[in-house]
Amino acid sequence: MTIETERLRDRVAAELIRTRDRTTLLTEAVDDGDLIRQHSPLMSPLVWDLAHVGNQEELWLVRDVGGREPVRRDIDELYDAFKHARRDRPALPLLTPAEARRYVAQVRDKALDVLDAARLEGRRLTVDGFAFGMIVQHEQQHDETMLATHQLRVGAPVLSAPPPPPGSSVTGEVLVPGGPFTMGTDTEAWALDNERPAHVLDVPAFHISRAAVTNGEYAAFIAAGGYDDPRWWSPAGWDHRQAAGLTAPLHWQRDGDGWLATSFGRTAPIVEDEPVVHVCYYEAEAFAAWAGKRLPTEAEWEKAARHDPATGRSRRYPWGDETPSPEHANLGQQHLRPAAAGAFPAGASPLGVHQLIGDVWEWTSTDFHGYPGFAAFPYKEYSEVFFGPDYKVLRGGSFGTDRAAIRGTFRNWDYPIRRQIFSGFRLARDA
Ligand code: AVJ
Ligand code: FE
């Protein structure tokens, strides 16, 4: 056993444990009633997410990698996300909160045992290391989903965190030069199938804003009648705006001439220089048109985030190749809100684009598709079944995304009408 193998084993175990601590925090902050209840038809009951996380870990690590006996062979169907839509999950004969906690703990014991025995070397290092990384990311993704469920929960606040660091005046846009850029990756150990393979694209020069659109800017769009003027909306966007009666971001309410926003049970005036959050793709698209700009394409976003103009190389993150630390980005629920523009100068790109990672997921104008040479792994249901015109790509992660589940190549996707996620946007235009 090499030292490197042992280091990888320790790192994987530490990530599994750190991630479970977050899951525990999210599921112990509320009582059993709030775990079982559906806080919105868009979301699963929290107790479903909890047992689903355990069930995926059992399927992938315990049974597949470990070849062990099932912990529970009778519940796979209940926790298969493709078998039951979120809105139908509360009616299922789910494990109780106590049963779900016991189940995930039993699975975890076995998974750590599998990790101890796994030969994390050679080809196995890639294959098994990846399986563990996938499970860490999967649980973190559900933790972010559970955080979004907390955001929809009505009642006294149960989560708290210190405010993010203050902003500094970061405004305007930068010019990203045209030319070749390597998008995607062959080398990120924990990159998912849809981030692969690396491929060279010629991205023409474009301008991109240095910070995400703020609450103050978004309030100006509303004040200018942006929600009532079909000129700014795409036909699909206008239809949705009409049908859903959209008038402001989710969780905003009028307060005289101003706006209040409710965040994790606390209602306060919007903070003008913080990124707008909880807007759908169509709202982002309309704002951009009103501002005389457009949303970045996915390739533009990734070029802004990864391209180093000095070397032509693509970085892992805007600031370089180092794993995110608290100085780089607002990630991992360390703060319960996006930070003001300029709050993370150490995380800026070489061209001076700020906060591409963390704060808010950023809508891009690109439909979710496989890169040239895409190969589904480990199964089609991870991403391939979502390819097509129904989903838009979001990039960069939010304050609720863990560092293990974000990187310059990471791709998220959702329906263009969704806004219960921590979604915002930045602007671009042709050079
Ligand atoms: C990548 C966030 C769109 O939550 O639907 C979780 C991640 N896949 N379980 C989702 C995922 C399977 C996925 N997103
Ligand atoms: Fe899942």
Automatic annotation (TrEMBL):
Co-factor requirement: Fe(2+)
Gene3D superfamilies (UniProt xref): dinb family like domain, paralog of FGE (formylglycine-generating enzyme)
Known EC number: 1.14.99.50
Domain DinB-like: 16-146
Top EC class for this record: oxidoreductase
Pathway of action: Amino-acid biosynthesis; ergothioneine biosynthesis
Keywords: Iron, Metal-binding, Monooxygenase, Oxidoreductase
Metal-binding found in the keyword field: yes
Pfam families tied to this protein: DinB_2, FGE-sulfatase
Renumbered residue ranges of the record's region Disordered: 302-325
SUPFAM superfamilies the UniProt entry points to: C-type lectin-like, DinB/YfiT-like putative metalloenzymes
InterPro entries assigned: CTDL_fold (IPR016187), DinB-like (IPR024775), DinB/YfiT-like (IPR034660), EgtB (IPR017806), EgtB_Actinobacteria (IPR032890), Sulfatase_Mod_Factor_Kinase (IPR051043), SUMF_dom (IPR005532), SUMF_sf (IPR042095)
Domain Sulfatase-modifying factor enzyme-like: 170-429
Domain of life, source organism: Bacteria
Keyword Oxidoreductase: yes
HAMAP family: EgtB
Family stated for the protein in its record: Belongs to the EgtB family.
Function noted in UniProt: Catalyzes the oxidative sulfurization of hercynine (N-alpha,N-alpha,N-alpha-trimethyl-L-histidine) into hercynyl-gamma-L-glutamyl-L-cysteine sulfoxide, a step in the biosynthesis pathway of ergothioneine.
Protein name per UniProt: Hercynine oxygenase
Source taxonomy: Bacteria, Bacillati, Actinomycetota, Actinomycetes, Micromonosporales
Recorded name of the encoding gene: egtB
